[in-house]
Amino acid sequence: MELLIETAKRKNHTIFKLTGDLNYEGALRLKKAFEDAILLDETHFILDLKSCKTISSFALSMLLKLNDTIKEKNGGFRLICPIGDVLDVLDVLDIRNVIPIYSSEDELWKNSGHDSLT
């Protein structure tokens, strides 16, 4: 399934909501969306994975590189709502030690006082 990317803004954050498979082609499209937002001086990002069915190793590598780029710009990157196989892969690789992961958008905003998400 082709990856669909929906963009929204909330509390000075750019939220990318993904639907479909985050495979090689999808990862390239998502990378372009991030690069376009960074060119507009966006620095705080949330990736909503609730409707993301699969994630490739290439996509994981790209997300880790994007995280480094965002950190260099003193920004923030969070993942929310991973489920199923995507959550399993993120847990096996212990990604949450590099990129914070929240089970819901509500959980993320509740913890915003601790994570400077305002």
Task: Explain what this protein looks like in three dimensions.
The chain is of the alpha/beta class and 118 residues long. 43% of the residues lie in helices and 31% in strands. It has a five-stranded mixed sheet with strand order 1-2-3-4-5. Helix 2 (57-72) links the parallel strand 3 (44-55) and strand 4.
Shape: globular
Which sequence of strands runs across the widest sheet?
1-2-3-4-5
Following the backbone from N to C, one meets helices and strands in this order, namely EEHEHEHEHH
Mean pLDDT: 93
Number of helices: 5
The percent range for helix content is: 40-55%
Tell me how many strands there are.
Answer: 5
Q: Are there runs of 5+ residues with pLDDT below 50, and where?
A: 114-118
Query: Beta fraction of the residues?
Result: 25-35%
The helix/strand class is alpha/beta
Largest sheet: 5 strands, mixed
Terminal CA distance reads: 34 Å
Q: What Rg, in angstroms, do the CA atoms define?
A: 13 Å
